[in-house]
């Protein structure tokens, strides 16, 4: 039965067409193009407001070099949040549950921050490997630890995958055992399912935000 | 190359002119129960009345379930939960979000309106000021008259001063002449008195002097006698 529980995460194909491509690109139509009008309808106004506020907040700690990444980070955030939220609907496929997608986003972006840091300010970038104020005997060990911590940063992608997969799986399992259950016990399971739903909505938004936030943090260190 | 240029000239042109931009509708399409467009009910009303679309919906649902075109599985429960949360969220926070979006637009309009109002008030004020200036300019005749009066008064004052000055000067000269004349007369009088006195003094002969002294002595004696008589009496 374990295989059928994870069936929901199999990348769907239809007649040889990988439908994940559709799942990745179709949510784009949910975002209306900002029009040339001065006063817009509510959706475009809210969308513009949200994007402006988010970009402003995200770029606060970054210096001018990091501002080049504004479009990338904001569009990444919108992308992830849309995919996560849409995946909560029934019978939908969440592309961000695929490790390949998340690592494909995390590793190149993380590597870009590392390379930028090493290229533009190698001393400062290497200096991050040793925090200030460490006692002298600890220095060799700490450098090794910090290097490991640096290379484990692509776990950004793993974090996203794990959180979303776990959440979806929990919802699926709770709903599955709810199906043949007696009504009296079913009420408890329904409550569990309801709470899980609320959690998943929160997790979907938070995980997308955390992804982008950590990336901006890595950028801040290196740029 | 010529054909390409012809095509280039036709970029960004179209026979439809969109200016001025057509206005957006005020409100979105009307919906029944938040999801189903009102038009469906209007379309079915002539043939099936008010309950038509509901019967259609119920029948479709029953058909899909009974023919097992849609099977109730675990996703149904997950969908029910998610649906509850979504509907609750939209019903509770929908109006607030809409009000917020409207407020954003309102603020935008209000900022522009403020600029316009400020311009209007400043222009109206400018008109008022201009009118006042025109009214002031009408009174310029009075101003000129007043100024002319001032100048005339100054001239008059000046003339009178000069007249006084002349009068004083002439009076001074006449006074001088008078003083000169009185001086002359006084000197002549003094001189004459001195001459008369001198002549009188020189004309007093010694015998006249003796006679006058003798008279004085007799007079004194008489006076002494009288005085004596008064004291003894």
TrEMBL record, chain B:
Q: Where in or outside the cell is it found?
A: Mitochondrion; Mitochondrion inner membrane
Alphabetically sorted, this entry's keywords are: Acetylation, CF(0), Hydrogen ion transport, Ion transport, Membrane, Mitochondrion, Mitochondrion inner membrane, Transit peptide, Transport
Q: Does the keyword Acetylation apply?
A: yes
Query: Cellular component per GO?
Result: mitochondrial inner membrane; proton-transporting ATP synthase complex
Which InterPro entries does the protein's record reference?
ATP_synth_Bsub_B/MI25 (IPR008688), ATP_synth_F0_suB (IPR013837)
Broad class of where this protein is predominantly found: mitochondrion
Gene3D superfamilies linked: 1.20.5.2210
User: Which segments cross the bilayer?
Assistant: none
Pfam families on file: Mt_ATP-synt_B
Q: Please provide, alphabetically and separated by semicolons, the GO molecular function terms listed in this UniProt record.
A: proton-transporting ATP synthase activity, rotational mechanism
Functional note: Subunit b, of the mitochondrial membrane ATP synthase complex (F(1)F(0) ATP synthase or Complex V) that produces ATP from ADP in the presence of a proton gradient across the membrane which is generated by electron transport complexes of the respiratory chain. ATP synthase complex consist of a soluble F(1) head domain - the catalytic core - and a membrane F(1) domain - the membrane proton channel. These two domains are linked by a central stalk rotating inside the F(1) region and a stationary peripheral stalk.
Q: What's this protein's family per the entry?
A: Belongs to the eukaryotic ATPase B chain family.
Q: What quaternary arrangement does the UniProt entry report?
A: Component of the ATP synthase complex composed at least of ATP5F1A/subunit alpha, ATP5F1B/subunit beta, ATP5MC1/subunit c (homooctomer), MT-ATP6/subunit a, MT-ATP8/subunit 8, ATP5ME/subunit e, ATP5MF/subunit f, ATP5MG/subunit g, ATP5MK/subunit k, ATP5MJ/subunit j, ATP5F1C/subunit gamma, ATP5F1D/subunit delta, ATP5F1E/subunit epsilon, ATP5PF/subunit F6, ATP5PB/subunit b, ATP5PD/subunit d, ATP5PO/subunit OSCP.
What is the protein name for this chain? ATP synthase subunit b
Q: Which organism is it from?
A: Oncorhynchus mykiss (Rainbow trout)
């Amino acid at each position: 039965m374990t295989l059928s529980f994870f069936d929901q995460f199999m990348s769907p194909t239809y007649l040889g067409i990988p439908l994940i491509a559709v799942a990745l690109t179709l949510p784009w139509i949910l975002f209306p193009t900002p029009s040339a009008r001065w006063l817009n309808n509510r959706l475009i106004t809210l969308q513009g407001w949200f994007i402006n506020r988010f970009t402003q907040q995200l770029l606060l700690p970054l210096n001018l070099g990091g501002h080049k990444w504004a479009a990338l980070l904001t569009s990444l955030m919108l992308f992830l949040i849309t995919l996560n939220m849409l995946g909560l609907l029934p019978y939908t496929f969440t592309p961000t549950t695929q490790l390949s997608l998340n690592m494909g986003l995390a590793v190149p972006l993380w590597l870009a921050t590392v390379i930028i840091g090493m290229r533009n300010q190698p001393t400062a970038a290497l200096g991050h490997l040793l925090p200030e104020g460490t006692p002298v005997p600890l220095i060799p060990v700490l450098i090794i630890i910090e290097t490991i911590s640096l290379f484990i940063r692509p776990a950004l992608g793993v974090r996203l995958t794990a959180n979303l997969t776990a959440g979806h799986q929990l919802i699926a399992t709770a709903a599955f055992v709810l199906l043949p259950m007696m009504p009296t016990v079913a009420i408890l399971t329904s409550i569990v399912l309801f709470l899980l739903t609320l959690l998943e909505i929160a997790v979907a938004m938070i995980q997308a935000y955390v992804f982008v936030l950590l990336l901006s943090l890595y950028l801040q260190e290196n740029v | 190359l010529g054909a390409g240029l012809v095509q280039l000239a036709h970029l960004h042109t179209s026979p439809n002119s969109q200016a001025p931009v057509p206005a957006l509708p005020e409100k979105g399409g009307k919906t029944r129960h938040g999801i189903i467009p009102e038009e469906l009910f209007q379309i079915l009303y002539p043939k099936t009345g008010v309950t038509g679309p509901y019967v259609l919906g119920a029948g479709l649902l029953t058909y899909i379930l009974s023919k097992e075109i849609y099977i109730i599985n675990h996703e149904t429960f997950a969908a029910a939960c998610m649906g509850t949360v979504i509907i609750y969220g939209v019903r509770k926070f929908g109006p607030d979000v809409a009000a917020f979006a409207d407020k954003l637009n309102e603020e935008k309009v209000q900022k522009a309106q403020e600029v316009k109002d400020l311009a209007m008030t400043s222009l109206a004020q400018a008109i008022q000021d201009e009118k006042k200036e025109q009214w002031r300019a009408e009174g310029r005749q009075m101003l000129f008259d007043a100024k002319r009066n001032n100048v005339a008064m100054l001239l008059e004052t000046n003339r009178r001063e000069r007249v006084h000055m002349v009068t004083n000067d002439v009076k001074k000269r006449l006074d001088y002449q008078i003083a000169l004349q009185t001086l002359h007369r006084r000197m002549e009088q003094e001189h004459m008195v001195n001459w008369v006195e001198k002549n009188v003094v020189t004309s007093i002969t010694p015998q006249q002097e003796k006679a006058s002294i003798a008279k004085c002595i007799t007079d004194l004696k008489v006076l002494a006698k009288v005085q004596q008589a008064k004291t003894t009496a």
